[in-house]
Amino acid sequence: MTPRPAALWARLAAAGLVEGEQPVPEAGRRWYVRLMLGAAAWLAAITLLGFLVSLTFVLLKSRAGLLGTGMVACGLAYAMFQRGRTSHWHAQLGLAASFVGQGLMAWALFGSFDNGDVLRDTTASLWMALIEALLTVALPNSINRFVSAQFAVGLLALAADDQGLGTLVLGGAAVLTAVLWLNEFRWFERAEALRAIGFGVASSLPGLALAVRQNMPPPAAPGDLGLTLNGLDFRAPWLASVLVGAVLLAAVLTLCRRQGLAAGARAMGLAGLAAVLCGMLDLKAAGIASSLLLVVLGFAHGNRLLLALGLLSLGGCVSWFYYALSLTLLEKSLWLAVAGGALLLARTGLRVLLGPPPPEVDTHA
Amino acid sequence: MSDARNLLLEWAARGALSPAKLEAAMHLGGVVPDHARWRRFVDSLLLWLGAALLGTALVFFLAYNWDAMGRYLKFALAEGAIVLALGGVLWRGVDAPASKALLLAASLFTGALLALVGQTYQTGADPWELFAVWALCILPWTLLSRLAAQWLLALGLLNLSVLLYYQTFLGFPLLGALFSPMAPCWVLLGLNGMALAVWELARLRGGDWLKPRWPLQLIGAAVMAIATVLGLWAAIDAGRESLTEALGWAGCIALVYAVYRRRQRDLFMLAMAALSVVVVVNTWLGRQLVESFSDPRILLVSASFLASSTLAARWLQRVAHEAEP
Questions:
Q1: Residue A68's domain spans which residues?
Q2: How far apart are CA A352 and CA B280, in angstroms?
Q3: Which of A59, B122, B153, B316 places its Cα 20 to 30 Å from the Cα of A11?
């Protein structure tokens, strides 16, 4: 049960954590208000962009012109965001200007021009990923940071996948997600920015896991580990699961330590074993480990949005598994049955070893 | 847990709570789980995930194109799974968490069984009938389960059934003439609106399982999305024929305002309604003012999008400032 604001404030005051009057609530920080503001800014940006494009300015006919205009728009966005820290109007104007700027720069990099000037997709993706990463850091607005972080990760993965390195971007995104969310309360001075980036990276993680696996060639033969004469083949399907599984294991062990469990404690060993099992399931059903990482991080910090994202991703990954071509439906069915049975067995084992979980007590009445 | 978390983060961001004390406050407010809550979470996760994977395994197994397996064995498998799940419910008692998982699994197995019937006997039934019968079959378990996810599954099946029904019949020349293009939206709006109203009423006198607001907000978001489609149709068509759709959309907004502003304050629902107003009103404005993208009056529409969303955010801010009930 969730305590009411006044009751929560009173408890904190009694514990000496706060003093004085309870502040009045602020709606602008809620995610659904941000969703409304972001959607409206996107629509405004689309109409603005349409207008600019239809004018066919000389500036918009060359890559340099488009890039320059896009940068000016992002500069304007920065100025608006600086003024818009307390004003929704300035923040909205800044958001629309930023989206227009990003659209123009993307057009500059991915478009083809009359003089035959066309960039390779990998080069364009890499440059755009860099621009999005810079905008994530530089533009002080949560909605902008969330959107730019998503684009940065997606574009970087696109560029890396062309070189067979998509797996490394997936691993990096998993590490970034875990580090940002595990330290959310510790790095509070920059918490708002880090939370926006954290949501951006976390929300792209399950999709990235599926996309990376989709683009991998099937193993040449059963048991093929993807080791080549030149070393490790980064396209090997198991590598993605091992990297994300290792991050999941590290996150679980960190959370166990925070609960005061000793390194050799039985509960810690069981938690670690569960993380390894989930990583193994990810070998066949891609995205399971990424989704469970979000579930665990979400629960550990009372973050219902992250938890819901993880649970939805889990459902999505199982649906994707149905259509995966690497296994027959019979093999998939056996994998799922073994995994489901193992989880239920693990639950029974935990209850035998540690006893049933203590019942919930409502302490917030 | 999330409301307390958001409050604490907000208080810390506004300087009312020192960042150094944030972690302690999160523990005290019950946001960061203790040992006991971790145990309950792991227990539930293993139970639900395990049940879901086993249920999905059976569906995959039946979907496999078996040549060697006769139809009776297939039916025995699907029906056996349902009987086993229901046996488990009888054994543990309907209120046990494991029983709720078993009822949900039995509901999924029923879908697999119905698909098997259609596949084996080539009944000629349309897909919408499969989902409607599926929803009907699991109704008794849904009533018994006292589980939000089970109710949402039944509602989702009914929605799917309505969509598939219209997909089948709108294309048929004779029957198609009987339906307006917006007919599916009206039926879906009625269905989900009724579900929302019944759930809200039940919540007033129901047990603990009805207290969380997330299922209501999920259905509310669906209602607002459907109403927005009606509103957009009216805004783009903008003729007398679409007056009903315009009135329907406006009625929905008025109802959401009356209920969630006046009776049961819910900022999420109000934010969804505000987004709907911003999108529909500005689309109508664009339709009235602008001929093409090169028309400079489009800048007015763009500014209007920004201004109206800013006003909506300020209004939500004012509503949030009102004292908590």
A1: 27-122
A2: 58
A3: B316
Alpha-carbon distance A152 to nearest alpha carbon in chain B (angstroms): 25
Q: What is the pLDDT of residue B173?
A: 47
Q: What is the pLDDT of residues B218-261, one digit of tens each?
A: 999 999 999 999 999 988 876 667 888 899 999 999 999 999 99
**Do B195 and B324 share a domain, yes or no?**
yes
Tell me, yes or no, whether B29 lies in a domain.
Answer: no
Contact A247, A276 (CB under 8 A): no
Cβ atoms of B86 and B106 within 8 Å: the answer is yes
Tens-place pLDDT, residues B260-282: 998 888 889 999 999 999 999 99
pLDDT of residue B324 exceeding 60, the answer is no
Q: Is the pLDDT of residue A115 over 90?
A: no
Looking at B179, B205, B236, the residue that finishes a domain is B179
Residue-number span of the structural domain to which B162 is assigned? 55-179
Query: Do residue A330 and residue B61 have CB atoms under 8 angstroms apart?
Result: yes
Residues 208-267 of A with CB under 8 A from B: 259
**B9 CA to chain A: closest CA distance, Å?**
9
Whether chain A has a CB inside 8 Å of the CB on B218: the answer is: no
